[in-house]
Amino acid sequence: HLPDMRTPTAMIVGLVLCPCGILLAFTGTLAPNWRQVSLIPDQPVDLILEQGIWDICREQQSSHDRRCGQADELGYFEQVAVRVARGLMPTSLVLTLLGLVVAALGVRCWQKEPRHLLA
Q1: Could you tell me the pTM of the whole model?
Q2: N-to-C CA span, the chain
């Protein structure tokens, strides 16, 4: 009689949700619109700046003309929060991927009775 070796539900749910988290973190890291700025002095009223942590896009609402790669005239990239996000978001992606690999290996080697020599 072999022991019941079913993988616990929590492990399966974690392995399903982890890639979802990676995808969302990746999207958030690359998204150009962390912040939208409008009503900028000496600029057209319908101008919107979409500021991400890597790029700034400029959009005219009236024509829907959108141009990315704009110069940082307002000092946005020099703000502490943006510099911290530039470090933490990629770090989050790397650590989440590492966690997924470790969890996948853990599920693959999971047993009811732990092997203390491997732990």
Answers
A1: 0.69
A2: 26
CA separation for the pair 10, 88 (Å, rounded): 27
Could you tell me if residue 54 is inside a domain?
yes
Q: Which residues sit opposite 65 in a β-bridge?
A: 60
Domain count, the chain: 1
Which structural domain, as residue segments, surrounds residue 46?
A: 9-108
**2 lies in some domain:** no
Calculate the alpha carbon distances from 76 to 35, 36, 63, 87, 116 in Å: 10, 12, 25, 15, 52
Summarize pLDDT for 84-116 with one digit per residue, the tens: 999 999 999 999 999 888 888 877 666 666 666
Burial code (b: 16+ CB inside 10 Å, e: under 16) for 14-51 equals: beeebeeebeebbeebeeeebeeeeeeeeeeeeebbbb
User: Using CA atoms, how far apart are residues 23 and 83, in angstroms rounded to an integer?
Assistant: 22
Place of tokens 């749910």: 13
DSSP state, residue 79? S
Q: Is residue 42 part of a domain?
A: yes
